[in-house]
Design a protein that fits this description.
The complex is a heterodimer.
Chain A (H helix, E strand, L loop, with lengths): L1 H21 L3 H33 L5 H23 L6 H31 L1
Helix pairs in contact in A: 3-4
Chain B lengths: L1 H20 L18 H29 L14 H27 L12 H28 L10 H32 L7 H16 L11 H26 L31 H4 L2 H5 L5 E5 L2 E5 L1 H6 L3 E8 L5 E10 H6 L8 E7 L8 E5 H5 L4 E6 L2 E2 L9 E3 L12 E8 L2
Parallel strand pairs in B: 1-10
Antiparallel strand pairs in B: 1-2, 3-4, 4-7, 5-6, 5-10, 7-8, 7-9
Classes of the chains: A mainly alpha, B alpha+beta.
């Protein structure tokens, strides 16, 4: 079963590679493949880790989980929204992103307040 | 004193030299640690979700490719009318959901990038190479997909459609290989179910880690206590699920009309555009403004040795039919509209030949471009609802929607609904 998956997977990969190698834009494809991999691992993720550490330092311990969750949601939405905003389509995408970020921030405040309310009630 | 200092200096120099000479054996000083949030179980759970999303995305993507470039064995029905709209909407929706899923997955295994030594042998090197290919291909698909939805082609040094297709196979193959290699680890991580995470479980886990360490497979990312692991894991999964939910709600309004009101990031809202229908390629962009507005415009219908030239008035004089059909674009947006025009079948019947086994090549006034012509065959040619439309809603077609005539057929991608139709050639399918 394992071996079958590995071998079949390798064959499928080979199919994709030969197709891409025959494409007139093969160099562009290769460059883009390398670029997304390198940029993600050497720039994007370290920045994400740094942001996580920053949250750990700046936000009080009780609020850290929701802060991190809000940051994750905001970042994911931004990844989708920023190309829309920068690209040639006209539409209020920047506004859309800001609206969503505001909703996330408000949601986080709400969850925090609900949590601390619950903590206060259980202690009291 | 002096002698000691000399000795000390020499020892320091020796140590530094030894460190330089033996660098392959010593791991880098800094690398991301496991932390309280990462665990093998988290990675596997994210992997399952990612596998499902990627799988659906892949299947719907290949389907879209086959509909646009049908090989001889492929058959695509003309009903249900909205099938392609559904599959392509699903393709973009699952693709966008992959953004937080892939991000979280790569974050959770990031420490493994720094495995030391980097290459332990041929099999290990092959495995690492295939993982690199998988990660690169997955990122390629997600990034190029998002750029395509945004119509932002400048950052992509290739033609999107073909590149996206070939790298999809690279990604799915890499995924299969990855699952094959990791199968035992996945099974172990996932069977570690909601069982009581007490002493015995902890001992087993520690024993497993020691075993892996002995075999040289231990990687940062595996050492985490089960109790804190469960809480951290839930936190990460909830955040990722929330991200996926927000993205879906904000974008799926481009496919699902009732959700358009909250679709603040929907690239194409169903009601936008002239005559309440979005436009991808305008008449100006296609270079057909003057030719389309020319009163000397004629639609040529040719085939089986005969040929007819029809003006707009001739077309309007033929029996008109109305159909409600969607324009479903490859970017995932779709919008239904009411079209009125002449049945394609009726035009082909003018040639007096049997239409069984025939196909119609519909060509545009657009002089060049990959999508200037499309082939209508089999079920679509025979379908009552396949029209050469002259009107949209209650008005004549807007210029940007294909005035004076455009092809509109059920269950067909937008790029194949040829606009500014100039010529229809009917022939036997080869």
């Amino acid at each position: 079963m394992r071996r079958a998956l590995v071998v079949f997977g390798a064959l499928v990969m080979a199919y994709g590679l030969t197709g891409a190698a025959r494409d007139p834009d093969r160099l562009g494809i290769l460059v883009f493949l390398a670029a997304v991999l390198v940029l993600h691992d050497t720039v994007f993720l370290p920045l994400v880790l740094a942001a996580g550490t920053l949250i750990g330092r700046v936000v009080p311990a009780a609020g850290q989980p929701t802060a991190r969750a809000a940051a994750v949601v905001g970042l994911a939405v931004a990844v989708v929204a920023v190309p829309l905003a920068i690209g040639p389509l006209d539409g209020p995408y920047l506004w859309g992103l800001l609206v969503i970020l505001a909703v996330i921030a408000a949601g986080r405040k709400g969850i925090e307040r609900w949590r601390s309310g619950r903590r206060g009630r259980s202690r009291g | 004193m002096v002698r000691d200092a000399d000795g000390g200096l020499r020892r320091a120099a020796d140590a530094r030299l030894r460190r330089i000479l033996t660098w392959p054996a010593t791991p880098p000083r800094w690398r991301p640690q496991a932390g309280p949030l990462r665990s093998a179980r988290l990675t596997s759970l994210l992997g399952v979700a990612l596998g499902v999303a990627f799988g659906v995305c892949f299947v719907t993507g290949v389907l879209s490719h086959l509909v646009q470039h049908p090989p001889g064995w492929f058959w695509w029905p003309s009903r249900p009318v909205g099938l392609y709209r559904f599959t392509q909407g699903l393709h973009v929706a699952t693709g966008l959901v992959t953004v937080p899923l892939l991000g979280a997955k790569l974050w959770s295994v990031y420490p493994r990038l720094f495995t030391w030594p980097p290459v332990r042998g041929l099999a290990h090197a092959a495995e690492r190479a295939s993982v690199a290919a998988l990660v690169a291909a997955a990122l390629f698909q997600v990034v190029s997909g998002v750029l395509n939805v945004a119509h932002w082609y400048a950052p992509m040094p290739f033609f999107f459609t073909t590149a996206h297709y070939w790298v999809a196979w690279l990604a799915i193959g890499g995924l299969l290989t990855h699952i094959g290699v990791q199968l035992p680890a996945i099974r172990a991580a996932l069977s570690h179910s909601k069982a009581p995470e007490g002493d015995r479980a902890r001992q087993e886990e520690r024993a497993r880690q020691e075993e892996r360490a002995r075999q040289g497979e231990a990687a940062p990312g595996d050492e985490v206590a089960p109790e804190s692991g469960a809480v951290g894991r839930r936190e990460v999964l909830v955040a990722v699920a929330a991200a996926a939910g927000v993205i879906t709600v904000a974008t799926v309004g481009q496919t699902v009309r009732p959700l358009a009101v909250v679709g603040v990031l929907a690239p194409r809202r169903p009601g936008d555009g002239p005559q309440g229908l979005p436009v991808n390629r305008t008449a100006a962009a296609a270079g057909v403004r003057d030719v389309a507005l020319d009163p000397a415009y004629r639609l040529t219908v040719a085939g089986f040795g005969r040929s007819f030239s029809l003006s707009v008035t001739d077309l309007a004089a033929m029996p008109q039919h109305t159909a409600v059909l969607p324009i479903a674009c490859v970017e995932g947006w779709s919008s239904a509209a009411t079209w009125t025009g002449v049945r394609l079948r009726d035009l082909a019947d003018l040639l007096g030949a049997d239409l069984a086994g025939a196909e119609a090549v519909v060509e545009s006034l657009q002089a060049s471009g990959r999508y200037r012509a499309s082939v209508v065959a089999g079920p679509h040619l025979a379908d009552d609802r396949t029209l050469i439309a002259l009107r949209l809603g209650r008005e004549p077609l807007d210029l940007d929607h294909g005035f004076p005539a455009r092809l509109i057929a059920p269950n067909r991608p937008g790029v194949l609904q040829t606009k500014w139709v100039a010529r229809i050639t009917v022939r036997r399918s080869s």
